[in-house]
Amino acid sequence: MPALTIGSTLPDPPQTSEELLAVQNLLARLQTSLTLRRVTKRNSVRRRTVSLTSDGKALEYKPTRKSRRQLLVFRDLYEVTKMDPASKVYKKAKLNSNTNVVVEMNTRIHRGWRIVFDDKASANTWLQMIGYKVKGGALAPSGAVPNEDTLTGCICATWERADTNRDGKVDLKEAKKMMVRMNVEISDDLLADLVRKHDASGDGALDLEEFTTLFIQLTQHEELRPLFASFAAQVDWMTRAEFDCFLKAQGDVPSDILFNTLKPDKNSRITFTQFVHYLLSPCLNPALDPAHQTGVVDEMTHPLKDYFINSSHNTYLSGDQFQSSSQIEMYRRALLAGCRCVELDCWDGKDNDPVIYHGHTRTSKIRFVDVIDTIRRHAFTASPFPVILSLEVHTSDEQSMVMADHLRTILGDMLMTAKDIPNMMYTPESLKGKVLVKWKLPHNDVDDAKEGLAGSDNDSGAARSPSQKAEASSQGALSHLLRSCVTVGAFKTSDWGRDAEPYYIQSYVETVVKELALSHRDEFIGQTSRMMVRVYPKGTRIGSSNYNPTTAWSVGAQLVALNYQTWDDDMRLNDGMFSLNKGCGYVLKPDYLRNPSGKAKATPCTITVTVLSGTQIPKPSLQKKGDIADPYVKLYINKRDRTEVKTSVVRNNGLNPYWMETFTLACESKEIDLLTVKVMDEDTTSANDSVCEMVIPVRALRTGYRAVPMKLCKNGASLPGASILCKFDIVDLPPQS
Question: Residue span of the signal peptide, if any (predicted)?
Answer without folding.
Answer: none
